[in-house]
Fold each of these.
Amino acid sequence: MTGRNPLILVLLAVILGLLPSCIDIHEEYWLSADGGARAELIYQFPKAAAAPYGGESGIRELIDSFLKDTPEITTTTRSVSTQDDRIRVHIVATVRSAAALEKFTQPATIGKLPPSATHLVGDIRAGLHGRTLHFTRTITPSKAFPGASLIPASRLKGHRVLHIVHLPAAASESNATRTAHSGHTLVWDTPLATALKSPVVSRFQMPLPIPWGIVSAIAAPLAAVCGFIVFRFRRLGKPNHLSR
């Protein structure tokens, strides 16, 4: 083995470590009408893929550091554990407002993650055209897990990249694999074998719902003003018996 590039040996070790196990990604998001969001993220991947980051404890430290430096995210659950030959990461988090959600998706925030994780977060593009939200997200699992494309097809079978989004209003257009709840729930279900060959794109358009909290906040003082004006006009319209 002498004379071989040590980097090649490390890469081979990582690839061989990937072979006995595989990767599963499950992400589910609940978006609210006021722009906040709740997310449940479950990632399962071979222990060998975590070796460059210090294994299970290193992954835990990376996640804790990112969450600490990202106050826009309120974490309710965070666990990192080893099950058989795979590491399982489970995070339940909340982003409380649209402004916080926008800040979280900025490159300066995403850039705090290790390179492999940024490929799982992906490239996020969101914008308003009139009152319609246009959203596109592109992730590249093959870059997040180098060497995974060499896993035999027999070991990829049954493993998936699953993204689920629950919207406050029905989507007017999407490329989702399937929909539920009259278009309020979009599901992108991609076999891992497909996700390792080309980027996974999730896209939807949604008309912005009326934020009833804001409507109530506006309606209450407006109703009070209108009531006062009506009251004044009624008073002015009454005959003044004292002037007789």
Amino acid sequence: ANRSYVDYFPSYELINSPPFRGAFFEPNQRSVNPHGVNFVMDSFFKSLEAKFGKIMKQAEKNDKVSLKTNQQDVVCEEELLAAFGEK
């Protein structure tokens, strides 16, 4: 409340919400299952889009460029390992 530039997102409350009856927990009732993580993250990104619009599309483009660069790096590293590996 003291910082206008900080938003609160209720991830804990979403996971523990009574209507979901523990559906987001692993059998140990302690760990959150992948379905729960996906539900929270989808809700989070939808909230961002509702507040800021579709600026997330640029982030997705950046991720694709980053992924391509990372794949190129892997190829380069493999070539280096082959060059200095077994003879």
Amino acid sequence: MSVPEEPARPDAGEPPGGGGAVGEGAVPPRRLVSLALAFYAVMLALALGLRALLAGGCLLFADAAAAARGIAWRDDAALGGLAGAVVILASRWLTRRTRAGAALARSLARALGPLGPAQCLALALASGVGEEALFRGALQPTLGWIGASLLFALAHFVPRRELVAWSAFALAGGLLLGGLFDRTGNLLAPVVAHVLVNAVNLRLLTRERDF
């Protein structure tokens, strides 16, 4: 799950094509995307294995009854899009109105370095699909809404003061995404919401920064 974006700096230009110097401690953008794709591919494989071991059935659905109902593609996608838009607006408010949100955004922007639109989208798709498959599709049917959300927050915990807010943001996001999974019975809405939030916030986070 992505984080609140940092307010744009009017004197900071966007590196053409996502290029330019990489922030201190940041992985070069192409390597970052390659590592992320490999990591989330492993996560997806783990999700498939855990779902088969813990609950059985199709990873896409909460249970057999949900699988029998199928996916309401238009309604579920629209619900996910609406939820994602709400999270984006909330993250913008937190970044611009709270010190913790601004500090978190600055720290992550420096760690990520400059990313182009295609790289932000690739990271958003990989993380949205991989994380929802694991935490909602594989774990929530067994651990429940609260248990899966707590693990989601724990997975986003970093023991640094400026990043503590990330766990709180992830917990709130995990509860929302888990609610979408329970409401619809399938992964479409939470994946749409997760990908939308990450794609928009990653782009805003890395668009106009001094690295």
Amino acid sequence: MGRVDGKITVVTGAASGIGRESARLLAAEGAKVVLGDLDEVGGEEIAQEIRGAGGSARFRRTDVRSFDDVGALVGSTVEEHGGLDVIVNNVGVAIGGTAGEMSEEDWNAVLDVNLTGVWRGMRHAIPAMLASGGGSIVNISSVQSLVGFLGWSGYAASKGGINALTQQAAVEYAPQGIRVNAIIPGTILTGMNEGILRDHPDPASLMSTWTSMHPIGRIGQPEEVATAVVYLASEESSFVTGMLLRVDGGMVVKAG
């Protein structure tokens, strides 16, 4: 038996990066996964890959900026599988800018996807989980919720909001059997960070900087975050809620 055998699971942002690897590993450990993303090609690709390996997966195009889209993703999952056990709220965008320079449009855009998108997932998942006796919510935050990076004020604020929302909901819903936790990744080699590298005038220097920030001596891989997702989705973490689990190569505890 797998570690999440038979658990009905929704993963947003599942077409790439942490979401993709989380979906793959959850399915390998026995979960029935329903994948949401705007990237239809990437989403269908990972769903087919999972099915080809003998797992259960379906993709549905989902924009986490839309309350109705997220509701349809969760609703169709409940209709198809009879309930919901796990949701992984993973979608995120990186929009740069300091607090004194960001446009209001950029500020609203990053908060809408990164923070309100997570809330939309929780808002629809919680009633479904209450109806079936409980579940596990896993939100993907960032080390930028805990430490300052130059030029990323909106992104940091959105991720800090995820931490607070996670802890608040954990207290609210623990008595009804819903656990709510967040993972705080360090620098992970996702498509988003690959794009930042491509756009940088000196990618090698930026990668060197990222590497030096992690005492472990390298940046992380999406599958290393996915293992934490499976832990929090599984009954192995049955007494864990309200936790902000750092998967950051020691970045946050490094003195300098």
